[in-house]
Design goal:
117 residues, alpha+beta, Double Stranded RNA Binding Domain, four-stranded antiparallel sheet, 6 strands
Length: 117
């Protein structure tokens, strides 16, 4: 097993295998999880406006953005989500995911996006 650089991130070239839980295996897991990128699947609502689009996360309060096009709005929302996620992580807090919303706003389109963190 060795550590390699991939796109500016460090990663193992193969996941370590071990049979019993030990201090060493727990440490390897912690190091492994630190350098393996996470992906978040997020439900969003996209609403056409007079000029452009508004977008917000249905499952996480306070994460919203806008853009001139759908693609731009989604990219801006991803940036906002990563900033919020960083604050929660720095403060050692869990992300306060909400349960599935019962209704979606009229005229809004529900979409799922993938955000790599």
């Amino acid at each position: 097993m060795s550590i390699v650089e991939q796109g500016g991130r460090l990663a193992y070239d193969e996941r370590p295998e071990y049979g019993s839980v030990s201090t060493e295996s727990a440490l390897l897991d912690a190091v492994w999880n630190r350098f393996v990128p996470c992906a978040y699947e997020c439900r969003v609502y996209l609403l056409p406006e007079n000029e452009g689009f508004s977008i917000w996360m249905a499952d996480l309060p306070g994460v919203a953005s806008q853009g001139d096009t759908e693609a731009e709005a989604i990219e801006h929302l991803k940036e906002a989500f990563l900033a919020v996620l960083e604050v929660y992580q720095e403060d050692g807090m869990e992300v306060p995911w909400l349960p599935k919303p019962k209704t979606r706003p009229a005229d809004a389109t529900e979409r799922w996006i993938l955000v790599n963190a």
